[in-house]
Amino acid sequence: MTTTSKPSQRPEFRNIGLADITVGYRLPLAGKMSILHRVSGALMFLLLPFVVWLFDNSISSQVSYEKFTALFNGGLGMPGWFYKLIALALIWAFLHHLIMGVRFLIMDVNHELISKQGGRTSAMIVLVLSIALTVVLGAKLFGLY
Predict the structure, then answer these.
(1) Residue 61 carries which DSSP code?
(2) CATH code (residue 125)
(3) Per-residue confidence (pLDDT) for residue 45, from 0 to 100
(4) How does pLDDT run along the chain (145 residues), one tens digit per residue?
(5) Which of 79, 90, 100, 115 has most Cβ atoms within 10 angstroms of its Cβ?
(6) Does some domain include residue 23?
(7) Rounded-to-integer distance, Cα 2 and Cα 9, Å
(8) Is 129 helix (H, G, I), strand (E, B) or coil?
């Protein structure tokens, strides 16, 4: 007499969608800062032509410098605050990317920061520093002092 057994059930895996990750998963602060590090790098890369244009117009001649400064007062069919917001986004991206990069370098040297609490503390420092410096430089950009 032969016994036929039922094949064992294999576990069923399903793909996780972006909504499952962003809404249902609580990412630690260090993970969020890491994602912002990638976003800031991508933002700097995408806005690189704007940066090159700004740099070229700021140093080429007196006339191009006057066009450059006039842009932030409004030009090319857009209000000046729009260009200032783009510059502010670049300022934030640069500051965040720089400070987060320094954090990664310090973590490579000092392995005590790799702990859960050390990672959270250093990520909070990066967040506070990058936002505070962006606010200070943004206030200068918008002429508040």
Answers:
(1) -
(2) 1.20.1300.10
(3) 93
(4) 566 666 677 777 677 777 766 666 778 888 888 888 999 999 999 989 888 888 887 888 888 888 778 878 877 778 888 888 988 999 999 999 999 999 888 888 877 667 888 888 889 999 999 999 999 999 998 888 8
(5) 100
(6) no
(7) 21
(8) helix
Residue 17, both tokens: 């969608």
CB 107 within 8 A of CB 33: no
Number of domains in the chain: 1
Q: What does the DSSP assignment read for 2-60?
A: ----PPPPPPP--PPPHHHHHHH----HHHHHHHHHHHHHHHHHHTHHHHHHHHHHHHS
- Domain holding 98, by residue range, is 28-141
Question: From CA 94, how far away is CA 102, in angstroms rounded?
Answer: 12
pTM: predicted TM-score of the whole model, two decimal places: 0.74
Place of tokens 């209000």: 79
How many other β-carbons are positioned within 10 Å of the β-carbon of residue 2?
A: 3
